[in-house]
Design a protein that fits this description.
GO terms for molecular function: L-malate dehydrogenase (NAD+) activity. Its EC number is 1.1.1.37. Catalyzes the reversible oxidation of malate to oxaloacetate. This is Malate dehydrogenase. The mean pLDDT is about 95. The protein has a six-stranded parallel β-sheet with strand order 3-2-1-4-5-6, with helices on both faces. Strands 7-10-11 form a three-stranded antiparallel β-sheet. With about 325 residues, the protein is α/β, with parallel strands linked by helices. The chain contains eleven helices and 14 strands. The chain is globular and about 55 Å long. The N and C termini lie far apart (about 45 Å). The structure holds nicotinamide-adenine-dinucleotide and (2S)-2-hydroxybutanedioic acid (LMR). The site of (2S)-2-hydroxybutanedioic acid has 11 residues, from helix 9.
């Protein structure tokens, strides 16, 4: 017997990430090839955006996806999030060349207050929320704080793009397959301060750190390359990453919903105090997922350099959080 459709809300549905994301959700890449979905798509009321959304919907229809059980277009989060089981909050302004993501807080922060409140009012009580819009960690924090009737653990921020970027750089450096990399972690903020940490990583059971054996490469090449990859893409494309961001969003939600079979992935989640991070800070942690729940990988040794990196990214998040006090 076929499964009951689940409701998936996507904001910014007519934007560039939306265009790379919706077709993959509708084809079953996010929630499984046996899971029908109803797409609840939100765009700003502006006529141009709503028209663009209509065009995207026509294309979705023309794909005749067997798993696509319904498509709705919305201009109000209160209707877009009604009973939604999954919410991918993408809609917001991307940065342009020369900007830092934190500069978007003033522009984008308020979006997440309104959307957090709407999720609080009308979404499924088990809704799984992923914030993609930048600065993703602090926007997710704002949404979480604006939804006091939903469990805080339902709100997450996207660090998966950093995780995937780190894995790809390691695969290139070691000449090994990206699929064979285990136990990679990215700590902290989705910003150049994030700390991609391969000290525990293995490939075929062998230590990646020992394989690379080059701390200068780690500090002077790997960390800046991963940390500044978003800016490098903006400089090259004139637009921020879209297909890789959509891919990371699919990975994040799929792993959260369907499990990781013990494999570590990175998610931005509200801290419960783990590794000395103050409670509620939306922090990138290594996690495993099973039965629709994520679990932080605990007990990892944090050496002096890692402590320094984690403090830097935490301090930045504390600063961002302080800057949005008026919104929460
Ligand atoms: P885009 O400008 O192409 O599309 C954004 C869309 O959101 C637009 O269609 C716009 O009309 C819509 N929108 C704006 N405000 C909205 C609101 N309040 N409700 C609903 N829709 C709204 O931008 P994009 O390239 O798709 O990027 C979207 C966001 O994702 C940006 O903030 C970008 O920085 C961020 N991003 C995050 C990551 C990550 O790893 N976390 C990666 C890439 C991009
Ligand atoms: C990215 O990392 O590619 C996105 O967050 C977009 C950006 O502004 O860097």
């Amino acid at each position: 017997m076929s499964k009951k459709p689940v409701r998936v809300a996507v904001t910014g549905a007519a934007g560039q990430i939306g265009y790379a994301l919706l077709f993959r959700i509708a084809s079953g890449e996010m929630l499984g090839k046996d899971q029908p979905v109803i797409l609840q798509l939100l765009e700003i009321p502006d006529e141009k955006a709503q028209n663009a959304l209509k065009g995207v919907i026509m294309e979705l229809e023309d794909c005749a996806f067997p798993l696509l059980a319904g498509i709705e277009a919305h201009s109000d989060p209160m209707t877009a999030f009604k009973d939604t089981d999954y919410a991918l909050l993408v809609g917001s302004r991307p940065r342009g060349p020369g900007m830092e993501r934190s500069e978007l807080l003033a522009i984008n922060g308020a979006i997440f207050t309104a959307q957090g409140k709407a999720l609080n009012a009308v979404a499924s009580r088990n809704v799984k929320v992923l914030v993609v819009g930048n600065p993703a960690n602090t926007n997710a924090y704002i949404a979480m704080k604006s939804a006091p009737d939903l469990p805080a653990k339902n709100f997450t921020a996207m660090l998966r793009l950093d995780h995937n970027r780190a894995a790809s750089q390691i695969a290139a450096k070691t000449g090994k397959a990206v699929a064979d990399i285990e136990k990679l972690a990215v700590w902290g903020n989705h910003s150049p301060t994030m700390y991609a940490d391969y000290r525990f990583a293995t490939i075929g059971g062998q230590s990646v750190k020992a394989m690379i054996n080059d701390e200068t490469w780690n500090r002077e090449t790997f960390l800046p390359t991963v940390g500044k990859r978003g800016a490098a893409i903006i400089a090259a494309r004139g637009l921020s990453s879209a297909a890789s961001a959509a891919n990371a969003a699919i990975d994040h939600m799929r792993d959260w919903a369907l499990g990781t079979n013990g494999k570590w992935v990175t998610m931005g989640i509200p801290s419960g105090g783990e590794y000395g991070i103050p409670k509620e800070i939306m922090f990138g942690y290594p996690v495993t997922c099973a039965n629709g729940e994520y679990k932080i990988v605990e007990g990892l040794e944090i050496d002096a350099f890692s402590q320094e990196c984690i403090k830097k990214t935490l301090d930045e998040l504390l600063g961002e959080q302080d800057g949005v006090k008026h919104l929460v």
